[in-house]
Amino acid sequence: MATSPESSTDRPSIKLRAIRALLNGSWRISPALAGRLCYQVLAVPSRRLPDAAEAQFLALGRQAFFTLDDMQVSTYHWPGAGPTILLAHGWDSHSGRWYELGQQLLAAGYDVYAVDAPAHGQTQGGHFSVIYYAEVLAAFVAQCQPAAVVGHSAGGMAAVYYLHHYPQAHRPQQLVLLATPGELNDFMNSFRRGLGVRQEVIDQLEQGFIRRYQHPFSYYSISRFSQELTIPGLIIHDRDDDVAPLAGAHEIASNWTNSELILTEGLGHSLKAAIVWQEIMDFIGRAR
């Protein structure tokens, strides 16, 4: 069961059962209420604390904040000679998830930045969406001017979204997408399966989403947005990804003419493995 796009392992079942019962039960009373409650579950994930290795990596960086629409956005910087690499984590995660790749980048002399998404890590914000995350990235790339952006899952979605919707924002020379859903609907289907809620609850959630953002889930098609990408790209996806269907990776690769797709096996959605870090290092190393 996928409980979040950051991890395909089961969460403690008591909390999961309670959320499922609340959402499905409230739907019987008021479908609109169920949709609002579901939005809160999706848009306000638990702030996952860094483990020991992640905390140590974050402590080595220089943490700073910038303000975007009254929201304090947390960023980290590990100085190096360059080029500059920006790391964007996924939903229900934080910048500490990059500690393994980050150490390799620093050892190779790269100038490394990471950013906490809205309502994640140390970034403020009452709720999260890929749209808000893209706005954060569009603002932050103006400051750090990355040569390459590496995004995992929702971080990859936000990177493609900002490149599509903010044409005047800084353009990196390279883009790496890890376990990135091809469609927002894929993300939502995984979310529904992980929670075990009725499709009708998600339908109500989508109605509220349309009122807030003016578009249905189907509008947010990363595979379609990727048709406009011209920079070199690396797409890494696992055959066993139970959150972002493999078909989405093939669609992105097919639409993005200057990209290459690498498939792994047995790594799931997180893609935390030495072979993945090496592929990234090799790819971004071509532009040095």
Question: What features would you describe in this structure?
Answer:
The protein folds into 2 domains: 1-43 and 184-219, no CATH class; 51-182 and 220-285, Alpha/Beta hydrolase fold, catalytic domain (Rossmann fold), CATH 3.40.50.1820. Helices cover 44% and strands 16% of the residues. It is built from 11 helices and 8 strands. An 8-stranded mixed sheet has the order 1-2-4-3-5-6-7-8, sandwiched between helices.
Main attributes?
288 residues, alpha/beta, Rossmann fold, 2 domains, eight-stranded mixed sheet, 16% strand
- At CATH level 3, the topology of the largest domain is Rossmann fold
- Helical fraction: 40-55%
Strand order of the largest sheet: 1-2-4-3-5-6-7-8
Biggest sheet record:
8 strands, mixed
- Count of the separate structural domains: 2
Outline type: globular
Tally of alpha and pi helices: 11
Low-confidence stretches: 1-12
Mind telling me which CATH architecture of the largest domain this is?
3-Layer(aba) Sandwich
**Between the first and last Cα atoms, what is the distance in angstroms?**
41 Å
Q: Which CATH class of the largest domain?
A: Alpha Beta
**Derived structural class:** alpha/beta
Number of strands: 8
Summarize the structure.
With 288 residues, the chain is of the alpha/beta class. Helices cover 44% and strands 16% of the residues.
SSE diagram, text form:
Blueprint: H1 13-29, H2 31-43, H3 52-60, E1 62-68, E2 71-78, E3 84-88, H4 99-107, E4 111-115, H5 130-144, E5 148-152, H6 154-165, E6 174-178, H7 184-195, H8 199-213, H9 222-225, E7 233-238, H10 246-255, E8 259-264, H11 274-285
Parallel strand pairs: 3-4, 3-5, 5-6, 6-7, 7-8
Antiparallel strand pairs: 1-2, 2-4
